[in-house]
Structure formats: structure tokens, C-alpha cells
Amino acid sequence: MASQLRYLVFALLSLLLFVLVGYSRFEVPYATPFAKQGDSATSLQQVLQFIYNPSRFSITTPSFVHNGKTYTLPSIPRHTAPLGRDICILDVDTRSFDSEDQIFHGPDFDWPKLESYSGGIMNHYMYARAHGYDYKFYKANETDDRHPTWVKIAGLANTLKNYKYVVFLDADAIFNQMHVPIEWMLNYWSIDSTISLTMALDPPGQVNEDKRGRLYSNTGFIIAQNNPKTFEILKAWDECPTETRYKGCAEWNKVRFHEQSAYGSYIRYDYNNYLKELPCGEANGEWDLELCQGVFIQHMWWRTATVRSYFGDKTLQSLMGRMHAEVINEKDQIMETQD
């Protein structure tokens, strides 16, 4: 524990050094404007862009390279201007996360002690602040007749009324490339105005297939676009277990994979033209899974306990990388050799 605390203190001291010394030389971020959020919000956005975005990656950067593979935008990207607060990053949960060692507990914050799901929520919040998006945590009421994961549908529907896009993540899913904005991903995945919901496929395996042998779309990461069809789809999905339209759907009230199985078994077959499925290797997986590495979105279904530490380590590496670059840039000025 002592080594973890020293690690954290060193990171915070380095960040303070940047704010005091380097802040005046850092320009406004290139991906998203500050949207008149106030001095403190602007300062935090600049700090986060400094940490995560040394390459000044923007929504129209032609390509992204990861582990030797290049991901290239279409020749004419749909989004060329930032959407800012027309995008909302959303968490939905029945838990309030305000107990000790949880994210919404006020006093005595201690990052090494923060429980794992709170680490995921912190990732979502920091990503939103880094790019000038809104962030919302939708606290839903739990019901006796359904598994708690069903509440994400109502949370999406209620939040989407106020935005062009809502990006929902489970608490054990994180943005893996903090510098890559949502607008770039919308362009890369060719999500046009006709697409209501976008999700990534599950890894190959019979357990992840519906009764027709088709891989489920994983509901741990959802991009919802505000259009009339989206609200129709969300309503049909939420009402699926009532069986007024979909006989047999009540099976998924509490049986795995709950709302995901209902969506995969019924909803997507009626609305296929308005839905997009992404490769699990890009938006649903863990870093060392051969087929599903989750390049842009990590979903740590098997390593949930490591969400906080994984995100914390990546953040510290980004920060230390920036500070090391500063050291190298100033090497000639700070290095003196004895005669």
C-alpha cells in the first residue's frame, strides 16, 4: 500500500508541476471547444488533453494505429466539427456508489482503495470532461420482477431526449483510448443518421449465441442516436418481457443475459436496418484476448476487479510519458556536465 501511495503522490506532484509551469504554453484542445463551461472546467479539460492527447488527435485525424494495425476514416467523414455537449456519456445503475471507497462518497478520497466499478465510472467522467461532453449518472429504482441491468433501457430513453447522442457504458467497461473522441468513432464506424443503436458483438462461443445461433450484441457499450425510431426501439425493448408483442421474452427477466438476451433474441430481428453491430475486437473485449481485444472500448467481464488499476496505470503512464517528453525537450538546458 505504501508503494501505491508514493506512486500516486508522485503522479499528483508531476501534474501540479505541469499546471504551474507548463500550463501557459498549452493551447486549447483541437478535438472539442470548451463550450463556455467556465474557468475550472476549461482548466481541467486542458489538463486532461495534455495528459492523454500529446499527438493532438482530432475528430478528422485520418487514421489511428494500435499495435501495428491501422484504423482509417472514410474519405468523407460525416462529422467534421465537434459535437461538444450534444453528446452525453452515461452511467445507469440502481446503486448510488456513495459508500466508503466509492466514487460519490465525499470525504477521504483514496484512489488505491477505490472499488473497481467506481474506477470505471471515473473513466467515463474523465473521458467526458476531456472532450467537452456532458456526463450523467442516472440513478434508477430497482424492481422485484427484473434483473437490475434492465434499467439501462429506461436510463437511455430518458437521457437521450436532451442530446443528439448518448453513449452508455457498463461500470466494468472503459474508454481504452482516452484521446480518441466519440466523433472520430462515429466517423470510423460509419454511423449515419439512419442508425439508432450501435453495439459490439460478443466473443465467439455458443454461450454468447441466441437460439438461432447468432452472436449476441453486448449491451455493455451502446451508442444511441436521437431519432424517432430509436425511441420506438427502446420502448419495444423495455416492454419485451410483458410478452404483449414478443412471446417468450419474459424468460429473460432474471435469466442471463437479461436485457441483452431479450435484445438479441427479439428486438434486433424486427429493427435490423436501424442497428449496427461492431467487431468485438474494437469495442468489446480485454487487452490480451486474441479475438476481442477491445481496442477502443475495454469490457472487463472476466477481470472486473482490475478496472480501477488498469485505468489508473494507463493514466499514470500517459502522464509520465508527457513529463518525460518535457524532460527530453529540456535536456540541453537542464543538463550540465562537469568540466
UniProtKB/TrEMBL annotation:
GO terms for cellular component: Golgi membrane. Keywords: Glycosyltransferase, Signal, Transferase. Residues 1-26 form the signal peptide. One of its GO terms (biological process) is protein N-linked glycosylation. InterPro entries: Glyco_trans_34, Nucleotide-diphossugar_trans. Belongs to the glycosyltransferase 34 family. This is Nucleotide-diphospho-sugar transferase domain-containing protein.
